[in-house]
Every structure is written in C-alpha cells, then in structure tokens.
Write a structure and sequence with these properties.
320 residues, alpha/beta, 9 helices
Length: 320
Amino acid sequence: MHSDENEFRPLGGSEVPRYAGRSTFMRLPQIEDPTRVDIALLGLPWDSGSTNRVGQRHGPREIRSQSTLMRAVHQASRVSPYDLCRVADLGDAPVNPIDLQQTLEWVTNHFRRIHEAGAVPLTAGGDHLGSLPILRGIARERPVAMVQFDAHSDTNDTYFGNNPYTHGTPFRRAIEEGLLEPNRVIQIGIRGSMYAASDLDWALEQGVRVIEMEEFFELGPRGVLDEIHEIVGDAPTYVTFDVDCLDPVYAPGTGTPEIGGFSTVDAQTMLRGLRGLNLIGGDVMEVSPPFDSSGLTALTGATMMFELLCVLADAVARRR
C-alpha cells in the first residue's frame, strides 16, 4: 500500500527553508505511536560503551540537523521511500548516561515495542554498543543475518578486566546470545593496529566472514556485494554502519578513527547494492560531533542513513 498521507512526507525546501522548523530526521513528522509507521527513524544518544574518545551521544541531534539536506528521491535508484512506506521520526530511545545496564534494558524494551508494533527501525547513534540492545529488541525470535561496515570487528570479549559491555564487544555478545547467525554475518572494512594477532580469531572460528581492507581493495565494492548476497541470501538481515569504516578524511568526527578506509562513494555503492535483501533494520553509529568541527561527519551519517532508508523502504514494500 502506498502512503498518500501528507503527514508522513518530509517538508520540502520550497515550503519551509531548510534552516527553519523543527529538527527531525529528514524533516519528517515526529510521532510517538510506532503502529502508525512502516519505518521508524530513531536516535540513540548514548556513548557509555566508549573506551576512549566520546561524544557520540550528541550524534543523533547533529545527524537530524544535517539530514535537512536530504531530499525525497534517491538520485541513482530513483527510489522515493515516502511513496513506498509511512516513515516518521519516533524520537530518541530512553537512556541513562550513568547506568550502562539500565540503558541496555531500556533500549532493548524500547526496540522490542517498536518491533512488536510492526515497524522497522533505522537508528542514528550513539556508540556501537547500542547495536546490541537493538538486536535484543528485534531478533529474540530467531537469529538474524548481519552486514557490518566497520573498521573494527567489535567481537572482543572484555575490556578493563571483566567488563563485557563496550563498543568493542557488541557482536560477540550478540552471537553468544543467539541474536546473530554467525555464518550469515559479513564484516567489511576491518583494519588498523590490533591488541594481539589473535584479535579476529574468535569471529573467524564462529564462521563470520571478515573482509579486511587489503581484501576490499582487491575485490572492490561489486565483488563485496557479490559476497554479501551469497552469504546473507534471503535471511532476515540487519545492517550496521559504523562511520569509522570510512577513511577519516570523509568522517573525522568519530570515536575510533582508522586511516586507510574506503571512500563515501564506495560506501554508497555497497549500501545501494543491498537492494533486494530481506532487510529488517539498520543503524548508523559512532558519529561524534565534538570531533567534527565542520559538520562533515554528521552530514555523511545523515546521507548514509538516507541510503539505508531507501533500501529498507524497498524491502518493506516488497514484503508487503
């Protein structure tokens, strides 16, 4: 069913200037009831899982601001997500910046409510630990596949003694908890110095497909897309996009930058190539405005969020 309701369409730049009006994702209405939408855009303003550079808690607000530059139709695919689905900004998930465990519980319950209402979540973070409670909220019925764009595997075990919950551990916990099907998980862009030569061993032993940057340069975006479609197949699939997958010349404002990453054009090519997968949600994580004086990283985050919105809307419409 196509949405003809003006309520679920973004404000146009010729109706209200882009610098005016309420700051919402893509200039969409902000509502509270997830049963009214097909795709829920949410913020997760939380960085208590960070171990070094913080500020990602401010990411959702700045991504909202930069998303005023997004228009209604995708230039390359000609997809108009607002013609395919009802989309709205559902505000921010509840967080407690001084209580990590309580936030994990609150965010899990919040996304479970979104999921049970039948809405597909697309989230702006926040540090990457936030993906764990999102998955707890939407994948408890069965393990799902995952496409991860990231400089880091995020499958470490513990930090600072026995702390199992940081932005470097979410997908190890998700695999252990049966939220992810490891042989249907593919990680793209892994690079940077390591704590130990064995850092990736656990993920590889579980069957995770890890594409390090050296292999990415050999395969190219099209070769990577072939692998993604082969590994994921028709399984329900979550997409997580850590902006540190990009070279920091494109996204300097992030928690753990690693030089030698791919370009924004490479990333857009791969995100567009996810069209046709059975997508059930996604996120854009690790935008840190305090390290982003020009606003470039937040603009990049908003653009990648729009790329994901287009392929998610296509997936939702095809399932319908």
